[in-house]
Design brief:
By secondary structure, this protein is mostly helical. Among the domains are: about 130-290 and about 410-435, Citrate Synthase, domain 1, CATH 1.10.580; about 295-405, Cytochrome P450-Terp, domain 2 (Cytochrome p450-Terp, domain 2, Orthogonal Bundle), CATH 1.10.230.10. It contains 21 helices and two strands. A hairpin with a 3-residue loop joins strand 1 (about 75) and strand 2. Helix 1 crosses helix 2, helix 8 (about 155-165) runs antiparallel to helix 10 and helix 9 (about 170-180) runs antiparallel to helix 10 (about 185-215). GO terms for molecular function: acyltransferase activity, acyl groups converted into alkyl on transfer. InterPro entries: Citrate_synth-like_lrg_a-sub, Citrate_synth-like_sm_a-sub, Citrate_synthase, Citrate_synthase_AS, Citrate_synthase_euk, Citrate_synthase_sf. One of its GO terms (cellular component) is mitochondrial matrix. Belongs to the citrate synthase family.
Length: about 450
């Protein structure tokens, strides 16, 4: 029966000119079960409370307010992120390695299969998705000249979100919707856009990188490689160790439950039935803020400033000088980038995963030593400062020095890598949003007068 239904959906998709794929076929089995699960959830739990909302929470950026469903990952304040119930070490054990070599890092393709279907793919399924992405990667003619015409001092994140917005000309969802798309088919049309945009991101990002910092030449697309290795080649990197770093990077930055600003923005914009191109471009704009994804750029800058400052003074970078520099930052009314978190209350396991990579591949790297020394002193500095609820490092605290080690020096570009990864997580959930028929998001706002009059 399931095979029959999959064939029916595949043939109706083909009739409407939509591509079929192993992942889409799998989702054709998964989606009706998920729809049934959610119908039951609503019937059984619909009237139950998820908790009270205080005035402090309304004033304080809705911290801790449970008002969104996000199936692909869940964040625990102490333990950190789990992707479909799996920690980062679990993913490294359970997902097939992207290089095919035992013990190698899984790639974002395998993760995307897991996030969307809830099941780990076989190596063959992960490869099928890699190939599907390769087949969908070609950019329409207007994108490359547009990127080449951007001013070199336009921030790479501005270039990225502009290019992805312009890519919206390709939206199957928008075209089908205009023709009159049945609600039950939303997810199929969204699938096309979601997989297409993920497929096209490496070339867009590589064009931005090569045009902004180099001669504008991008290595030819290589379909014989996995997504991450091909991305590295197009950026201009050919070290297999850097490929492994890119796989790790793209997996761990992908998803961090739904409330973070980039995921939430993608979800909110998508809830208006703006197509996935517009939704993810909006998410990228949220990621580009220094309190969110851009912090990784700020961290690197902070470390380089620290190094330059003490070099000029003829002092070594050690626990004492780092403490001094941290206090200067705090006393200037600035935040320490890479430390603190809206939800986490312990060291981010994404930080730990990157630290482990560094210990394995670059234990003697100078910048890695500085990051390790910062880790020793910063929690105590922040505790003494007495403001932040979480004195521990987040993901952004480590990523830049790993990239620097392999010669990837242009810190203003780092958030673009984060964005390529975040697309996998935010768009996996966006697909489920459309499959599960999630409605327009529209929480209630109130005025301060309303609080004074109504809250006892
Ligand atoms: C991928 C990511 O998005 S991970 C986060 C990346 N961002 C950063 O690393 C930037 C530095 N960190 C921060 O600014 C914050 O910790 C955030 C934005 C991540 C979380 O913000 P919140 O949930 O509001 O944190 P919290 O409740 O602990 O803030 C309380 C106070 O501590 C301050 N604080 C929090 N973190 C820091 C920090 N790293 N350095 C200095 N002060 C801090 C806040 O600015 C706030 O001060 P205020 O009362 O004067 O407004
Ligand atoms: O969870 C958050 O608010 C921020 C974060 O770490 C992420 O989005 O990766």
């Amino acid at each position: 029966m399931q095979v029959f239904r999959a064939r029916m959906v595949a043939s109706s998709a083909a009739q409407r000119g939509l591509a079929t794929s192993a992942l889409k076929d799998k989702l054709t089995e998964v989606v009706p079960k998920e729809q049934e699960k959610f119908k039951k959830l609503k019937a059984e739990y619909g009237s139950k409370s998820l908790g009270e909302v205080t005035v402090e929470q309304a004033l304080g950026g809705a911290r801790g307010v449970k008002c969104m469903i996000w199936e692909t990952s869940l964040l625990d304040a102490e333990e950190g992120i789990r992707f479909r119930g799996r920690t980062i070490p679990d993913l490294q054990k359970e997902l097939p390695p992207a290089s095919g070599e035992k013990g190698g890092e899984p790639g974002p393709e395998a993760l995307f299969w897991l996030l969307t279907t809830g099941e780990c793919p076989t190596p063959e399924q992960a490869t099928a998705l890699t190939n599907e992405l390769h087949e969908r990667a070609k950019l329409p003619d207007h994108i490359e000249p547009m990127i080449r015409s951007f001013p070199k001092d336009m921030h790479p994140m501005t270039q990225l979100s502009t290019a992805v917005t312009a890519l919206q000309t390709e939206s199957v969802f928008a075209k089908e919707y205009t023709k009159g798309l049945n609600k039950t088919k939303y997810w199929e049309a969204a699938y096309e856009d979601i997989v297409n945009v993920i497929a096209k991101l490496p070339e867009i990002a590589a064009l931005i990188y090569r045009c902004t910092y180099y001669d504008g030449k991008v290595a030819p697309y290589d379909k014989s490689l996995d997504y991450s290795a091909n991305f590295c080649r197009m950026l201009g990197y050919s070290d297999p160790e850097f490929d492994e770093l890119m796989r790790l990077y793209l997996v761990i930055h992908s998803d961090h439950e739904g409330g973070n600003a980039s995921a939430h923005t993608t979800h909110l914009v998508g809830s208006t039935l703006s197509d996935p191109y517009l939704a993810i471009a909006s998410g990228f704009n949220a990621l580009a803020g220094p309190l969110h994804g851009l912090a990784n750029q700020e961290v690197l800058r902070w470390i380089l400033d620290l190094q330059a400052h003490f070099q000029k003074e003829g002092k070594p970078v050690n626990e004492e000088t780092i403490r001094e520099f941290a206090w200067d930052t705090l006393n200037a009314g600035r935040v320490i980038p890479g430390y603190g978190h809206a939800v986490l209350r312990k060291t981010d396991p994404r930080y730990t995963a990157q630290r482990e990579f560094a210990l394995k591949f670059m234990p003697d790297d100078d910048l890695f030593h500085i990051v390790s020394t910062i880790y020793k002193v910063m929690p105590d500095v922040l505790l003494e400062h007495g403001k932040t609820k979480n004195p521990w490092p987040n993901v952004d605290s480590h990523s830049g020095v790993l990239l620097q080690h392999y010669g990837f020096k242009e810190e203003n570009f780092y958030t673009v890598l984060f964005a390529v990864s975040r697309a996998y997580g935010a768009l996996a959930q966006l697909l489920l949003d459309r499959a599960l028929g999630f409605p327009l998001e529209r929480p209630k706002s109130i005025t301060s007068d309303w609080i004074v009059k109504n809250v006892k």
